[in-house]
Recover the amino acids of this structure.
């Protein structure tokens, strides 16, 4: 399984990757910007996307909107501003930073088993 991690903080991206590896994900792309995320997803469609919203260059929410425009992909937002995500994305699955591996595991499980995909809210 392949995951796209949209996160501009290297250490946090590394923690997410470790957590996803424990859940059976075997390959990863890490995008530090909105544009890089969209490009990487176009090159290889991920089985899961994790995204922070506020990136140094762009928005994780906008990247996810572009990536999921024509295809359903489970998405977990990992952010320090849960309220902002919930205001922007209907039915968002959100893990609040700082997070524990159990939080990530629960959120990924919910995204996949409940089939809660990113939905356009606009």
């Amino acid at each position: 399984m392949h995951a796209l991690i949209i996160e501009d903080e290297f250490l946090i991206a590394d923690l997410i990757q470790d957590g996803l590896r424990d859940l059976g994900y075997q390959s990863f792309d890490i995008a530090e910007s909105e544009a890089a995320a969209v490009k990487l997803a176009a090159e290889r469609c991920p089985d899961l996307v994790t995204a922070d919203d506020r990136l140094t260059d762009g928005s994780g929410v906008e990247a996810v909107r572009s990536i999921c425009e024509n295809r359903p992909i489970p998405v977990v937002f990992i952010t320090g501003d849960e309220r902002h995500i919930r205001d922007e994305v209907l039915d968002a699955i959100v893990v609040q930073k700082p997070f524990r591996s159990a939080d990530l595991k629960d959120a990924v499980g919910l995204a996949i088993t409940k089939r809660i995909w990113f939905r356009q809210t606009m």
About this structure: The helical segments are 10-22, 34-43, 60-67, 82-88, 101-113. The chain has one domain: 2-113. The first helix runs from residue 10 to 22. The chain is about 40% helix and 20% strand.
